[in-house]
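Write out this protein's structure.
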Amino acid sequence: MATTPIDRTALRTAIAVLVGGVTVILDSTIVSVALHDLQADLGADVGTIQWVSTAYLLALGVVIPVVGWLQGRLGAKRLWMAALAVFLAGSVLCSLAWAPAALIGFRVLQGLGGGAMMPLMVTMVMQVATGPDRTRLMSTIALPAAVGPILGPVIGGLILGAGSWRWLFLVNVPLCLAGLVLAARMIPADAPARRTRLDIVGLALLSPGLVALLWGLSNVSGAGGFGRADVLAPMLGGAALLAAFVIWARHRRAAALVDLDVLRSRPTWAATALLFLSGAALYGAMIILPLYWQQLRGFDALGAGLLLMPQGAGSLLSRTIAVRMLERSSARAVALLGFGLVAAATVPFAFTGAHTPVWWLLVALFARGLGLGTVVIPLMTVAFVGLEQAQVPHASTVTRIAQQIGGSVGVALLAVVLASSARSTGSLAKAFDITFWWTVGFTGVAILLALALPGRPAAETPTTTAAERRSRPATAAAG
């Protein structure tokens, strides 16, 4: 049976947000390979320069919870273009930074713009696409999330090999400008803004709670691990604030900053939990894999980045494969296959040493990339199954927060496991083996949780609301 063409408006929206949005995810990891250069050029110590990455991630966390409210007040198109302009300004200013404090401050500006864009790019596509179009377009929107963290260090290494660290930020300029032009021309006009009241209490609980938790997790890699005061205090405080927000949101329901009623839907809560675990497996491994190539195998930063390219290639290739599979099978089956492939492809690293053939590990990385790319598409699609259009921004915020926290938990936990294993065993090779087994464990839990996803083929899953089904004949007629 021939595949029907994707709705023109939905396709144009997806292209516009993809061009602008790819820079945000790349910037979460592209700077990681430049910390040594930044330290030397700006005259900062390691602890200070680490905030170039940490400040960006914390800024992302600050703004994510308020995106739904901002969209209601400004409209999706205006908010997207404003956030992209802020990100562009932050990128230019970062390239001009003259001191560590200036660079860190400009990274915060970047993060504020990027934090608004992350959930918004999914929301915008989900609200204009219906039925099977959602699955196919999500493969496009999920692309940066799948390959950005993998390709970031590679692109960063190539840029540093050819020029100054300032080009790590200037490379965003043409993409952001193109994204603004495309957004102005291709994203449909906004609906009239709703004068909704901001949930001040919810904002005072959720944003600081999320930032405190992420800040505590970012400090885990230092000496002392989870026992340090600058880890325990913000983590416990953040967890308390998040717990208080849950209680408040359950009371406020649809009037809350983030409506947690979306988690009443089994597909939504299952996808959210799995996105948390996939974030842990992806970002955690993206810290451990470069360390393996550098510390145990003796490659430099550029070499380690290039050796991760097969994983990125696998993620890119999986996009088309995953869409075809999802059109013929269920989200549960595709996710089980993807997570199973990630687990199987990580196992070889748990048996490696300083002399394991590199070609064999590159094959495993390619297979791991296939699995990671395969997982993201069904999860990001099924997270919105059965939700009303007004609930989509809330579900998008919840899933993005889950990915953000999951990635931070994965990085923190695996860093502690690696350090403690190296101390207890006295062998770096053995420490890496143990750490990779933990990554396999994350994926094993995800395989069990994937059983909660819908078991019906995507074509039989009610991915549209009643209102969408009523509007479909008119949309088709309009053509």
